[in-house]
Amino acid sequence: xxxxxIAVLPGDGIGKEVTKGAVEVLKAIETRFGHHFEFAYGWIxxxxxxxxxxxxxxxxxxxxxxxxxxxxxxxxxxxxDQHPPHxxxxxxxxxxxxEMNLFANxxxxxxxxxxxxxxxxxxxxxxxxxxxxxxxxxGGLYFGKPSGRMVENGEEKAVDTLLYKKxxxxxxxxxxxxxxxxxxxxxxxxxxxNVLSSSRMWREIAEEVAQEFPDVxxxxxxxxNAAMQLIRSPQQFDVVVTENMFGDILSDEASMLxxxxxxxxxxxxxASGPSLYEPIHGSAPDIAGQNKANPIAAILSAAxxxxxxxxxxxxxxxxxxxxxxxxxxxxxxxxxxxxxxxVVSTDExxxxxxxxx
Length: 357
Ligand code: ATP
Ligand code: MG
Fold this sequence. Notes:
The chain is α/β, with parallel strands linked by helices. It has helices at residues 14-33, 46-52, 58-65, 89-99, 123-126, 166-181, 197-210, 223-232, 244-255, 296-308, 313-328, 346-356, and strands spanning 3-11, 36-41, 69-74, 102-110, 130-136, 144-152, 155-161, 186-191, 217-222, 239-242, 265-270, 275-279. It has two domains: 1-108 and 259-357, Isopropylmalate Dehydrogenase, CATH 3.40.718.10; 130-256, Isopropylmalate Dehydrogenase.
């Protein structure tokens, strides 16, 4: 029986609705398995701008650092679109990633038998897809210096730098191997080693780390080929690990394999403290406040928290099984409903999942 403190940052729009659902599901797990979860709430995003005058208040950051894990909803909305850059909700999200050293972004993409029609791809292509993209989140092209624009000899130029330190590559590749060890034991390391020095170093380090994991198979794939293979035969992948920008692009591509944004969770693991869990979707202003949002992405994010931050695999499985069960029973929020299917609200979906647990 464990005691865990969870920082809950609902944020804006449907973020508030779906985190409420995820917290209720965690409470059901608490009851069934006899753990104690303490939920501590903090402001982030537009809500924090309104309440505290900044998208990431110091007290929110302190609360997160004192917790065992962070559960986040989503930030943003039209209300704050005209604000200056330092008062934009999204700024809060970038800051928290940086401040908490969240270097590894994990996005599982899983096929659900009952939802085949929500993918733009043919069923035989996506059948059985169960992969995780592990994206490096705090280095590479998005952070390397020099970066910026300049005029030299009257010529306008712009530069970005793809820079990695050996240790930064090592730690992200290790995350991928450790994950693969608990799954189908295959790591695909994606790079552009035919062109980029950083990729050649990445490849060497991946080989080095692989020595520590003799039970896991390592393959290398060029990023252009990986983009193609994800659509051609996504079943071949287990764990895909790659640098920041490649991962940014491939994880969005992969998320479309199974269709709805409302189904897909994510984890951002920290190098130095608590990790953060959030659905990959945004605040969805178009449906906010209507009790319509699909809470499953947030609920599956909570399951990832149970497994990865607390080591509670059985509990995580109980959540995932409950989700599968209600989907198999035909329960659908609007985003995943086909013509003629009965549509349930956020609250109804949450209640059914709780009951299944
Ligand atoms: P952001 O910039 O914050 O990522 P976005 O423009 O990518 O936002 P989302 O907020 O993710 O957009 O929403 C995109 C579309 O998907 C919207 O039409 C929204 O209603 C829908 N959507 C997103 N999440 C969900 C959900 N959990 N349930 C139902 N529909 C959703
Ligand atoms: Mg988006």
